[in-house]
Every structure is written in structure tokens, then in C-alpha cells.
Design brief:
- The protein is an alpha+beta fold and 133 residues long.
- It has one domain (20-114): ADP-ribosylation fold (Alpha-Beta Barrel).
- The protein has helices spanning 20-29, 35-40, 51-58, 72-77; strands spanning 13-19, 31-32, 43-44, 65-71, 81-87, 92-98, 101-102, 106-112.
- The protein has a three-stranded antiparallel β-sheet. The chain has a three-stranded antiparallel β-sheet with strand order 3-6-5.
- The longest helix has 10 residues, at 20-29.
- The protein is globular, with a radius of gyration of 14 Å.
């Protein structure tokens, strides 16, 4: 994962707000997996415009998170299925990743967490990517 040479315009990217412990485990095992994979059979993921609302709803006050960016094409190449499924409570479809994510599909990572006021802010490289078309 080299944040300086990856060009996000050339890929279909998905995002995961992760516990730091899950990311540390991934670096040891070579695959990212979280509790939702074993509990629900998939890993919840977001499109860029969904990140901040997801953070606000499910990670309020947390400062110990990591934002992962993964490449959907690399997931498919590794045999990991991605499906967009409608989530009625949010009124939109979300990408669900049906398998552990190989580290080779992770393109960039950022420390991520709420500030002192409890607000989340996207990393500088994503700030312009959240506009819906």
C-alpha cells in the first residue's frame, strides 16, 4: 500500500471504517476480517459519500479507528464477491463484501476518528470524492 503512487481515479473504490485492532490483525494474517463477516456473512462497506453518515451513526465518539480503502476490481480478482444491497433504514444501497479482504486489495489507509467535538472529517484525499452525482 503506497499512498503516494496509487491513483484512485483508475479504480472502483470502497471504504470500511475499521477498529484499529482488526486492522492490526489483518497486517499479521494478510486478510482483513471483522466481526460482521462472521456474524452476518459479509463485511459492511461504503461508497465515499456514505462514510461520514456511517461514522456518525455507528462510531460516535470513537477516535481509535482506521479508514480502509479497497479496490473492488482487486477483490473480484481475488475471488471475493461484492454485492450492493438495499438498506431500508438508510434509504440506499451499500456494498457488502462476502469474504475476507486480502491486503493486496487495500489501496490506502488513514487514521480516522471523531474530533474533540465528536465530528468526523474525511481525509484530505477523499474530501472531494463525497459529492453524489
Amino acid at each position: 500500500m503506497n499512498n503516494s503512487t496509487f491513483n484512485p481515479q483508475n479504480a472502483k473504490l470502497l471504504y470500511r471504517i475499521a477498529d484499529a485492532a482488526d486492522w492490526q490483525q489483518a497486517q499479521q494474517t494478510g486478510f482483513f476480517a471483522s466481526a460482521d463477516l462472521s456474524a452476518e456473512g459479509f463485511i459492511h462497506s461504503s461508497e465515499p459519500q456514505q462514510i461520514l453518515e456511517t461514522a456518525r451513526r455507528y462510531y460516535a465518539g470513537r477516535a481509535d479507528l482506521v479508514l480502509l480503502e479497497w479496490d473492488e476490481v482487486a477483490l473480484a480478482a481475488a475471488g471475493v464477491r461484492v454485492e450492493r444491497e438495499w438498506v431500508a433504514s438508510r434509504g440506499e444501497a451499500f456494498a457488502h463484501v462476502f469474504g475476507a479482504v486480502p491486503l493486496g486489495a487495500v489501496r490506502r489507509t488513514w487514521p480516522f476518528g471523531a474530533d474533540a467535538a465528536g465530528q468526523f472529517t474525511l481525509p484530505a484525499g477523499l474530501a472531494g470524492a463525497t459529492k453524489s452525482e
